[in-house]
Amino acid sequence: MKEEIIIAGFGGQGVLSLGKILAYSGIMQDQEVTWMPSYGPEMRGGTANVTVILSDDQISSPIINSYDTAIILNQQSLDKFEKHVKPGGTLLYDPNGIINPPTRKDINIFQIEGTEEAGKMGNAKIFNMIIMGAFLKIKPIVQLENVKKGLEKSIPERYHNLIPLNIEAIQRGMSAVKEVQKV
């Protein structure tokens, strides 16, 4: 198994944290992992993306130009990365702020109302874990118990009391994801 993923959105949406937690979750599952963040100087409000590769075998290079999965959280990222999803690959997006939805016909497309679901849970900071849940429902490449371990590694110990809320957000994302197009 090898999964090459791009996660992209605005700074402040938890893009880099989502990638980091996913990477730690892969490590907890004894997978080979790369985590390569990229963000503009603006940080919050600027664009941010992270490439994560999870593999059962050694990873030859962390630099890739096409992805098995793109997790897209804003229009600029959709415009930039939709064309880089491999044919037959997967695009997961939050429609909040997306004016022009994905148009490709050769990829699987899923939608998660992450912003809306986080609002229903009363905590905007768990948005990225709702997205994580949607991704894991589509592609269960790491087990939930390893995601919990990944959260423990990623989140400072003083915030470990929030791990159950994060797990709840992941489960909510799993149940709220919608298939838009299957190839």
Walkthrough of the structure:
- By secondary structure, this protein is α/β, with parallel strands linked by helices.
- It has one domain: Pyruvate-ferredoxin Oxidoreductase, domain 3 (3-Layer(aba) Sandwich).
- The protein contains six helices and seven strands, in the order E-H-E-E-E-H-E-E-H-H-H-H-E.
- The chain has a seven-stranded mixed β-sheet with strand order 2-3-1-4-5-6-7, sandwiched between helices.
- Strand 2 and strand 3 form a beta hairpin.
- Helix 1 (15-28) packs across helix 4 (127-138) and helix 4 crosses helix 6 (163-176).
- The protein is globular.
- The two termini are 20 Å apart.
Output the keywords.
alpha/beta, 183 residues, 6 helices, Pyruvate-ferredoxin Oxidoreductase, domain 3
